[in-house]
Amino acid sequence: MTAIAEGTDSQGAGRRHRKPLLRSEQSQGLALISPTLLYAIILLVAPIAVVIVYSFWTQNYLTIDKTFTLEQYRVALTEPIYRDLLMRSLWVSLLVSVITVVLAYPLAYYISFHGGSHKSLWLFLITIPFWTSYLLRVMSWKVILGYNGVLNSGLVGLGILDEPSTALLYNTSAVIITLTHAWAAFAILPIFVSLEKVDRTLIEAAKDLGDGPVRSFLRVTLPLSLPGVISALLIVMIPTVGDYVTPKLVGGKDGVMIATAIEAQFKRGANWPLGAALSVVTMTVVTVMAASIVFVIRQAGRRAR
């Protein structure tokens, strides 16, 4: 009987080992991720690869010279106009990110700690502006910021003023204001989620040990919510560097950013390799900048603890 049982077990083990490939856990996992992986390769990896390849070529009028060269990178990194536009774009995106997070954190904190049963309502109200298109919101800010100019133009027509003024429009300040409003909800939501995960008993323990509201916030709440702060900074900073619509509509000549220069190189076949090189340089600088910000904030959070 023992021999029969051992034979049966060995036959069962053999059948398990001979299980078809499509039924194994590994193959099932690959089958699940394959569509997503293929989608990411087609829509993300392939376009970036094409841009990188183009950046090593040159263009003579409408002819693309596929000889490998770093000339486009030399132009992108040494020409003052492109260097200044990139620096302005990085500065604007960083400033917009910081302002947005500073304004979003108190609101997210209030909803998380004092929203009570109305948290869902608060979050619903925050998303209302996003029921309209991004373009309409930018145009709304153009009207709001240009109201001063419209008013002054009317005063000019009445002979009260000598010339109209659009001090709030067509400059870098208008771009910062518009972008801050446009990306506010994207900063509030990750901070709120991070604050929701903060263990309230740790805050109570800090107070029991003698920490006041400010000290317990700086030593407990803020460090534990840093993942949300980092996410908010990155979510706002990365897209705003390459924003094209907002500088075009409310920035004017003083609010031009690097995306405008990139778009100009791809318009009517102007210089695609240079546009690709500007894109690659911008992506690289933004990646380094984002990694540096994450490192600095994490180090600051560890020291605070």
From TrEMBL:
Organism: Mesorhizobium marinum
Topology of the protein relative to the lipid bilayer: Multi-pass membrane protein
PROSITE patterns: ABC_TM1
Region Disordered: start-end pairs: 1-21
InterPro entries, alphabetized: MetI-like (IPR000515), MetI-like_sf (IPR035906)
CDD domains: TM_PBP2
Occurrences of domain ABC transmembrane type-1 (ranges): 86-295
Family: Belongs to the binding-protein-dependent transport system permease family. CysTW subfamily.
Pfam families from the UniProt entry: BPD_transp_1
The protein's name in its UniProt record: ABC transporter permease
Record-annotated membrane-spanning stretches: 37-57, 90-108, 120-136, 143-161, 173-195, 216-238, 276-297
Superkingdom: Bacteria
Subcellular location: Cell membrane
Keywords noted in UniProt: Cell membrane, Membrane, Transmembrane, Transmembrane helix, Transport
